[in-house]
Amino acid sequence: MAEIATIARPYAEAVFSLAKQAGALDAWSEQLTLANAVAADPEMSRLASDPRVSADQLGSLFLAVCGDGLGAEAGNFIRLLIENGRISVLPEVVAQFEALKASEGGVLDAAVTSAFAMSDTQLAELSARLESRFKRKIKAGVTVDPALIGGVIVAVGDEVYDASVRGKLQGMAYALTR
User: What is the pTM of this model?
Assistant: First the structure.
């Protein structure tokens, strides 16, 4: 997967730079999401890999399916990906674009795993604590894992905070067996 990320990076950075200069990060985000959905369609994927379908034909079809959802610049970007045989890296381009956009806006993603469902109030309180810790806006996503027994595990970037009962028990077991 590193190869796909490496191929996608220059495209994502170029699109991000263009969108930032135009002050249209959200608009580009919507357009890229639409294009990604079209590219993910099984029939479109089949056509993209069919050597009998020319780049011009695929580009025209792709843009026709997107309709008015893509602006001229986004359409040109999609045509460029198709001409270079890189439409398959579009999902990674979108992911990297969104990461650049979040970084620009000072937003960090937090993956919260909780033993029980969290209320909106609890999630807001946890997000506020994380925002004060990281000095940035936090966008938290929650999953429930009853195996934690109690508490939460929070992953922000490459930092992981384990405040679960399972984690505490594992720590105690490790300390007792040393």
Answer: 0.64
